[in-house]
């Protein structure tokens, strides 16, 4: 009986130990989820609700042999405190893309509404569903990449912290939180992305994108940020590299102007063809 009693006690001690380990592991998982979500939300709130801003842009497409194709565009954004997020990109050169416009209406907890106006065809096309993962005008950016990355569209998990990559324009030795971001949209072209956000300014420095098979297929390197009118940080120079094809697309923004006074009417899809 004594031997039997010992075995019973040993069994329950083992069960308690395993249960305690499971609870501890679950606690760590919840903590990493909460921490990742809190960091992502803080970064979003820090750089949104600024009102209206415009900028001039340069898109440079590079093939594996180093050949370049440059396109210039104008960018217009409305992001007001009431939660409206609208953006409009309009190409001005060269001739083959002049007049092409991409309009995005940010949606907090679903797929953004996007329209593209193709001047050569004289019509507006709605981008929806799986089409959002398609390449935007042959670049390494998809339509999804150019949509609004609202926190409600993802689940998050904090991974670790480490030195920030690509931080030449901000204080050296910055520490970044590394966060895994999983899209909730079934039509997303990605299974997840990994984001580096610095702790000092809450700026994004790098994003690694993974396809549905779990392959690391693209990396966005943010080379430079700019503080506009001493109130708002914006990305100034970033490159999206396709790791499968070795093609890349660099985006540069300049001439930021916070004095614009856009309204929702300026981002009406019915005005795209005018």
Give the topology, please.
Elements: H1 2-46, E1 51-62, E2 68-79, E3 85-93, E4 101-105, E5 113-118, E6 123-127, E7 154-163, E8 175-183, E9 192-198, E10 204-210, E11 216-228, E12 232-242, E13 248-257
Antiparallel strand pairs: 1-2, 1-13, 2-3, 3-4, 4-5, 5-6, 7-8, 8-9, 9-10, 10-11, 11-12, 12-13
Q: Would you mind describing this structure in some detail?
A:
This protein has a single domain (45-271), classed as Clam (outer membrane lipoprotein receptor (LolB), chain A), CATH 2.50.20. It is α+β, with helices and mostly antiparallel strands. It has a 13-stranded antiparallel beta sheet. The chain has one helix at 2-46, and strands at residues 51-62, 68-79, 85-93, 101-105, 113-118, 123-127, 154-163, 175-183, 192-198, 204-210, 216-228, 232-242, 248-257. Residues 1-28 have low confidence and may be disordered. A hairpin with a 5-residue loop joins strand 10 and strand 11 (216-228).
Name of the level-1 CATH class: Mainly Beta
- Principal-axes geometry comes out as globular
Order of helices and strands: HEEEEEEEEEEEEE
Low-confidence parts = 1-28
The secondary-structure class comes to alpha+beta
Which bin fits the share of residues in helices? 10-25%
Please give the domain count: 1
Q: How many helical elements?
A: 1
Which assembly state applies to the chains in this document? single chain
């Amino acid at each position: 009986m004594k031997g039997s009693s010992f075995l019973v006690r040993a069994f329950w001690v083992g069960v308690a130990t395993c249960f305690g380990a499971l609870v501890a592991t679950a606690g760590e998982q919840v903590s990493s989820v909460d921490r990742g979500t809190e960091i992502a939300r803080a970064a979003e709130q820090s750089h949104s609700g600024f009102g209206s801003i415009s900028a001039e842009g340069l898109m440079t497409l590079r093939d594996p042999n180093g050949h370049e194709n440059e396109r210039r565009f104008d960018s217009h954004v409305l992001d007001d405190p009431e939660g409206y997020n609208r953006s409009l990109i309009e190409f001005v050169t060269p001739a083959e893309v002049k007049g092409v416009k991409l309009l995005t209406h940010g949606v907090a907890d679903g797929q953004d509404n996007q329209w593209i106006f193709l001047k050569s065809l004289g019509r507006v096309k709605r981008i929806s569903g799986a089409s959002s993962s398609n390449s935007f005008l042959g670049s390494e950016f998809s339509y999804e990449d150019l949509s609004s990355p609202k926190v409600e569209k993802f689940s998050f998990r904090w991974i670790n912290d480490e030195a920030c990559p690509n931080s030449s324009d901000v204080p050296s030795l910055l520490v970044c939180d590394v966060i895994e971001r999983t899209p909730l949209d079934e039509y997303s072209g990605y299974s997840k992305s990994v984001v580096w956000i610095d702790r000092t300014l809450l700026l994004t420095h790098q994003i690694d994108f993974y396809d549905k098979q779990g392959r690391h297929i693209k990396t966005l390197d943010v080379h430079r940020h700019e503080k506009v009118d001493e109130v708002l940080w914006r990305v100034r120079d970033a490159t999206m590299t396709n790791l499968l094809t070795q093609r890349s697309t660099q985006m540069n923004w300049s001439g930021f102007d916070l004095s614009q006074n856009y309204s929702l009417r300026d981002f009406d899809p019915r005005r795209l063809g005018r």
